[in-house]
Amino acid sequence: MRRSELVRRLARIPGPPAPRADLEQVVTPPEVAAELLFTALAAGDLEGRSVLDLGSGTGRLAVGAALLGAASVTGVELDPTLLPVARAAAEEAGVEVEFVASGVADWRRPAEVVVTNPPFGAQRAHADRPFWEAAFRLASRSAYAFALADSRTFIERRAVAAGAHVVATRSIAWELPRIFPHHTRRRVALPVDLWAIRTERNR
After folding, report:
1. Which residues does 180 contact at the CB level (< 8 Å), separation at least 6?
2. Within-domain flag for 66
3. Is residue 139 scored above 90 in pLDDT?
4. Predicted local distance difference test score (pLDDT) of residue 22
5. Cβ atoms 97, 75 nearer than 8 A
6. What is the CATH number of the domain that holds 190?
7. Would 109 be classed as within a structural domain?
């Protein structure tokens, strides 16, 4: 599948019908989601792999991973009201994805590859940390994730502590539209990084 086709199909997946600010329910832009997924695909971390999407929301990363040939995909989402939207998106895309209501800290089933767009901590400091902890704990091969640029030191230190290896970190163009009542600007550019991390212990 071409990147442009993936972007087009991911753009069809709606965001949360009533986004919650306390959970930072911000939709991953389709172009940004495609960037993460094609990065994983190029590294041999999607096709034929088991994939776990932590904080799957309405399913853009999870459905995209399935479209690019993942052997199995599970989406873990705390807000159960988003699961019907995600399941409908997977059905429309013609792929099988298991969506489960659970907090990431409570999830125990590992996968080869973890993908995640965690909360950035705008509403609650360190809201992203349980996602990173779960990613290092659950990914047997690799993890791909987004984070604000000011989280680099924390992520690098946590990767070292987990025995993981940072393969790449690069800046991503990410514009946040006005979603919540406290947003005063129509659109804001965010300093976001895309991380590719090898978690496999026998490197």
Report:
1. 19, 21
2. yes
3. yes
4. 73
5. yes
6. 3.40.50.150
7. yes
Strands 72-77 and 187-198: unpaired
Burial of 174 (0-12, 13-18, 19+ CB in 10 A): buried
- DSSP code, position 151: G
Edge-first strand order for the sheet with 165-177 is 98-101, 72-77, 50-54, 111-116, 139-148, 187-198, 165-177
User: What whole-number distance in Å separates Cα of residue 165 and Cα of residue 201?
Assistant: 9
6 sits in which H/E element: helix 3-11
Total count of domains within the chain: 1
Closest Cα to residue 52, out of 71, 28, 26? 71
The two structure tokens encoding residue 9: 């199909």
Mean pLDDT calculated for residue range 166-177: 85
Place of tokens 């790449």: 168
Contact 146, 32 (CB under 8 A): yes
Count the Cβ atoms, other than its own, within 10 Å of residue 157: 10
Q: Tell whether 203 is covered by a domain.
A: no
Q: Based on the number of CB atoms within 10 Å of its own CB, is 163 exposed (0-12), middle (13-18) or buried (19 or more)?
A: exposed
Q: What's the CA gap between 24 and 41, in Å, rounded?
A: 27
d(CA 199, CA 203): 9
Q: Could you tell me the pTM of the whole model? A: 0.91
What percent helix, strand, coil does the chain show, rounded to 5?
35, 30, 40
